[in-house]
Design brief:
This protein is of the alpha/beta class and 149 residues long. It contains four helices and six strands; from the N terminus they run βαβαβαβββα. The strands form two sheets. Strands 1-2-3-4 form a four-stranded parallel β-sheet. A two-stranded antiparallel sheet has the order 5-6.
Length: 149
């Protein structure tokens, strides 16, 4: 499996990536070179997140998907946080039939299942659980009486 994320393509929308620095110059050509690699191409590329973040419609995202479609291998795509054109799974399948999409489902690739999960609000995940008042904690005997100080 070949996994890649955040391609940030913009073939239909005038948002060139190289405005963010020289490292972004011809970035899709670099992606293609890595995708094709030496030897045989990957059998199952898995692309997740922000394939076409500047496209706000399927029509604007279409050239970005067309560029990926030209590359070899089965493409499994998970929705990215900038993929505003993505409304429903059925619309994505209809617009881009050469791709497998993950949305409230999973896709089998050989002996691997590809699934996605929406990012939860990180601060909520990092908050410690509420403190239990000392007077209601169970003591070493298992009762809920106050612990000795």
């Amino acid at each position: 499996m070949y996994a890649i994320s955040d391609l940030h393509l913009s073939f239909a929308v005038d948002k060139p990536r190289d405005i963010f620095g020289d490292g972004w110059q011809d970035h899709f050509e670099k992606v293609k070179a890595d995708w094709l690699g030496e030897g045989s191409p990957p059998k199952t590329p898995c692309c997740s997140a922000a394939i076409s973040p500047w496209g706000i419609s399927v029509a604007e995202a279409a050239p970005d998907y067309a560029a990926l479609a030209e590359l070899p291998g089965r493409k499994i795509v998970l929705r990215g946080n900038h993929d505003y054109y993505w409304s429903t799974l059925s619309k994505m399948r209809a617009a881009f039939p050469d791709f497998d999409f993950v949305q409230n489902n999973c896709v089998r690739a050989g002996n691997v299942l590809v699934a996605g999960l929406a990012r939860l609000d990180a601060p909520v995940l990092l908050e410690p659980p509420p403190k239990t008042p000392r007077s209601t904690r169970a003591n070493s005997r298992g009762s809920a009486s106050p612990s000795p100080t």
